Amino acid sequence: MSPPQKQEFILLSDILGLSLLVDSINHPKPPSSTEGSVLGPFHTHDAPTLELGSNMSGDEAGEPLLCVCTVRDTRGNPVAGVKVDIWETDSSGHYDVQHADRGAPSERCVMVSDADGRFWFRGIRPVSYPIPHDGPVGKLLERLGRHCWRPAHLHFMFAKEGWDHLITALYMRNDRYETTDAVFGVKASLIVDLDRVDAATAKEYGDPQLEGAWLLRHEFILVSEEDTAALRDRNAVEALAKLGLRMRLVDHLPVPELD
C-alpha cells in the first residue's frame, strides 16, 4: 500500500495539514525567526556531504541555480558549524528516490555553515510537481475536490546542538500553486524571489560560467533550544487557559492547579 516511492502515510498527514500542525506546536517560532514547513516523504539519510560551492545536481536538463545563504541567530550573529540538509526534485518534478533505477543520490546534499554562518551551493531552479496521487491519498484528494500539486520549492533542514531543529523550505514567488499547495507548506515569509548571477557574482563564487544562471540569496534565522522550550511552554499555558483549565507546567507537562 505504501512503497518507498509513495509514502502514503506521510502524504496523508501532509494533505490533512497534520504534519504542519505538529511542527508548529513542537517547534514554535518567534516573529524574527525562520518559519518551519513540511518535511515531506522524500528526505533521505544518504545525501553526500559536499564542500561549500559544490553542485548537488546531476540534472543537465535543469536550469542552473546558485544559492547563497547565511545562518544567523535572532540577534543577527552568524551561526557556524550548522549541518544543513538540502534536497529538491529534478527538472521532471521527481525526487531521486522516485526513480526505480536510482543509483547515487542526486539533487540533494549536506553542507556545514562556515565561520561566517554562510553556505552556498549549485542546483537547479525548482519546478512545481504533483505529489503521488495514484493511491489512497490521491483518491481522497479527488473526493475533496482538491488538486495534487506542490509549488516549486527547495527543502532545508538545520541541525546543531543547542539550537532548535528547523525543517523548512523556500518557495518560488508567483508559482501557480503558491496559494493552493496540496500539503499547506507555503508561508508568506518563505516565498522568495530569484535574480540572475552577474559577472561579478560568478567570479566571486569561482565559476565564470555561472553568469546568467538563476540566483537565490536568503538568510535563515535559528532559535536556541532554550528559547523554543520557553515559547512552547508559554503557548501551552495560554492554550489551557483558553479552555478554562487552571494548569501549571512541571517538566513541560501540564499539572492541575489545586486549591
UniProtKB/TrEMBL annotation:
The family assignment reads: Belongs to the intradiol ring-cleavage dioxygenase family.
The answer to whether UniProt assigns keyword Metal-binding to this entry is yes
According to the UniProt entry, where is the signal peptide?
1-24
Instruction: Spell out the InterPro entries in the cross-references.
Output: Catechol_dOase_N, Intradiol_dOase_C, Intradiol_dOase_core, Intradiol_RC_Dioxygenase
Q: Which organism is it from?
A: Eutypa lata (strain UCR-EL1)
Family annotation (Pfam families) = Dioxygenase_C, Dioxygenase_N
**A biological process term (GO) from this entry:** catechol-containing compound metabolic process
The protein's UniProt keywords, in alphabetical order, are:
Dioxygenase, Iron, Metal-binding, Oxidoreductase, Signal
Name used for this protein in its record: Putative hydroxyquinol-dioxygenase protein
Please list the GO terms describing molecular function: catechol 1,2-dioxygenase activity; ferric iron binding
